Amino acid sequence: MVKNVDELLILQPVVMKQLQTIFEKNRLAHAYIFDGEKGTGKADIMQFFVKLMLCESPNMNVPCETCRNCRRVDSGNHPNIHQLYPDGQFIKIDQVRELMAELKMVGVEEGRKIYVLHHADRLNVASANMILKFLEEPEGEVTAILLTEQIQAVLPTIRSRCQYIKFQKMPRHVLLQQLQEHHVVPALASTVSMLTNEFENALFLANDEQFAHARKTVLKLVEAIQQNVHEAMLVVHEEWLPHFKEKNEIEQALDLLLFAYRDIVSIKANPEAACTYPDRLQFFKEIALHSTYEQLSSQMEAILQARLSLERNMNRALMLEQLMLNLQEGNTFV
């Protein structure tokens, strides 16, 4: 669903101000790169910018939404707009050649022509060189917008000929609000928003029973660690190892465990701090009260070391047993 201007201003205030100022001062460049992670609003803001450039009656640097051009942009039927997507793994030279031919055609409407390259990092060598030639020798009123999540994969020579627009990660409070609007309970929304900044992925995790069980299992281990090492080992062998069978599942579980200890440190510094697990606030306050920063720092370091051991393909049972011993050393509830 395309976001309205107010939502885009909340999502990317700096980018929106930048593009509106460019339009207001009539300083439109012939090429832009929109660089940002998935979920940062690149496609929606591209749509806004295209509409603004073509709108017949813009007001306060916002498209009117009602003129013929605005309606045609929304419907995807404006003849001066051309959008290119990868064909399989790459954007191929035949696609670029066809695009260039369309842009040079006589009979296309007067006014600015705009072409958009989605996943511009997936131009192959030949198509990248052809685009580069076009960027070096633009003909008439033509604007290119290149969208990418992998700026380092775009040729430096292409990057140098485009105005660079950097999209920031979605503000966490915006993601939390969107999740709660989709009926995700606040505690679960807080957790998934720490794991991903992308709304669709966050919503998937929030509705995934397996993830809910993983969250519960991780918090159960935190409780066991506060009792004694034997209880912790029991949870590892009876619940963690049977549940987290794949490497990526254990990685996620270790991340969730690390977030629990980060919560405890945050609460120790500020009892009103925003948490990954707000439903465990009272329990974490009790741990924070009986722990020093040095102990908590050692416990977080132990989890990070376990993560590294996992990368080196250390035996998972041994890695988790060693982690329990290291976490217990930093624990005062023995």
How does this model look, in words?
- The chain is of the alpha/beta class and 334 residues long.
- The chain has 2 domains: 5-169, P-loop containing nucleotide triphosphate hydrolases (Rossmann fold); 208-329, Zinc Finger, Delta Prime, domain 3.
- Helices cover 58% and strands 7% of the residues.
- The chain is built from 16 helices and 5 strands.
- The chain has helices at 5-11, 13-24, 42-54, 68-75, 93-104, 125-136, 156-159, 172-181, 186-195, 199-206, 209-227, 229-243, 247-269, 281-289, 293-311, 316-329; strands at residues 31-35, 81-84, 113-117, 142-148, 163-166.
- The protein has a 5-stranded parallel beta sheet, with helices on both faces.
- Strand 2 (81-84), helix 5 and strand 3 form a beta-alpha-beta unit.
- Helix 11 crosses helix 13.
- The chain starts with a helix and ends in a 5-residue tail after the last helix.
- The model has no long low-confidence stretch (mean pLDDT 91).
Helices and strands in order:
Layout: H1 5-11, H2 13-24, E1 31-35, H3 42-54, H4 68-75, E2 81-84, H5 93-104, E3 113-117, H6 125-136, E4 142-148, H7 156-159, E5 163-166, H8 172-181, H9 186-195, H10 199-206, H11 209-227, H12 229-243, H13 247-269, H14 281-289, H15 293-311, H16 316-329
Parallel strand pairs: 1-4, 1-5, 2-3, 3-4
Helix pairs in contact: 1-2, 2-3, 3-4, 5-6, 8-9, 9-10, 11-12, 11-13, 12-16, 13-14, 13-15, 15-16
